[in-house]
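Changelog-linked ticket: adenosine-5'-diphosphate-glucose example.
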Amino acid sequence: MNRLVVVSNRVAPIRDSKAAAGGLAVGVYEALREAGGFWFGWNGEVTKKPEISYETLGNITYITMGLCKRDYDQYYRGFSNATLWPIFHYRIDLARYCREDYEGYRRVNAMLAEKLKPLLRPDDIIWVHDYHLIPFADACRQLGVDNRIGFFLHIPFPAPEILTAIPAHRDLLKTFSAYDLIGFQTETDRLAFQDYMTREAHGQVKPDGSLFAYGQKFRTGVYPIGVMPDEIRRMAESYRGRRPLIGRTTDGKLRKTIISVDRLDYSKGLLERFLAYEEFLDLFPEHRRNVEYVQIAPTSRSDVKTYQAIRKQLETEAGHLNGRLADLDWTPLHYLNKSLDRRTLMGLFRSANVGFVVPLRDGMNLVAKEYVASQDPADPGVLVLSRFAGAVHELTSALIVNPYDCVGMAEALDRALRMPLAERKERYEQQMQAIRAADLSAWRDNFLRDLGAFADQPSALREG
Ligand code: ADQ
């Protein structure tokens, strides 16, 4: 078995997969735990003297380093999160571009490639993750690295009309051709990428489905990231008996609950959902006092300006909603800016009647899958899901809503809360089938299988 080398922006040694927050970390960890290898990237620290450090836990070695302030500002806070993130989520209005940031982004990718190169063996397979590291393979190739290198994009890939708003799009997109395989969450994302390569870069789709552009042949594929449904269910079940306090009335009865869990990010549509919930309480006043909505949203990227602005808006709307509607014994909205451990989170999902997952744009959205996988099959809750989450391609029997349609979302909440048990069960079973068919192991195995298909002739295949 070839050794697996994973490269991702942020690397934090995982001591317990149950404690690891989120899909990327858990997925990569599981892949590495089986194959053995190392995980390479930034340790999350900003330091004057970035030094490499090594830590081995089981058969995974974590090789990490800090970033100096300038690199952090230009590569991470600047081009990755103030240019690429908004544009890839269709928010040109929030994007900021400056040449120095782009140069810093390229420079940090080159620096990381230089640090990685001496650690590589010829038959290592390199798997690079996400938008921070698009030019990473190109930087490796320039240093003579001939290993197989695959890339997986966790976020959406935008239509070329949006993408070309990045002044450096030509230089950036060319670097994709240094990969052997590029993976996307959905076919929509893959087609948008192919569209750019054929229309903007004058590339061709070969009869075998691969792309030829910039003098290179490379493959693309769709690998929807999944969850580990059995583990989630076990975690959720083990929470039983310690039912969360939310939803309890003063006379001990349980109110119905709606739950949302997201990083505090403008792409997640948090403001839109607060407004829709208020609309729901106005349109259907019979639900007042009988329902509570819990939004858990730990702050993220709080030193990027747009994130500070959205946080303020949410605080204002949450205060307004509760101020207008709450009573001594009823708080309609619980808004928590904190992280919870996964077991508690899965327990909360299981106890909530509705999972309200309505991002404005999302690569996949694992919370949607986690919510469904946490449910009690005998009495499952209802998933209300945005048509703009990648997960909608698989979870077709959720209640699908348009997050820009406030009244439509309010009506969906009403419908979800009233849905009869038989219908809830039927929808739940269909969603579980999809979740099992594309679980986390399938994501990892299919991607690595396809990347491994280049084993016999790595460089020959790469030249058209
Ligand atoms: P994210 O944008 O972070 O991921 P998501 O897919 O929902 O979005 O994953 C978030 C993960 O963090 C989930 O596993 C969730 O349970 C966990 N999480 C969120 N809030 C939490 C909290 N308060 N406490 C503890 N855990 C919390 C990016 C892309 C997505 C894509 C994933 C994986 O933006 O579209 O699905 O990567 O590819």
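Closing comment: Example verified and attached. The radius of gyration is 23 Å. The pocket of adenosine-5'-diphosphate-glucose is lined by residues 21-24, 154-155, 225, 261-263, 296, 298, 339-340, 345, 362-367, 370 (CB under 6 Å).
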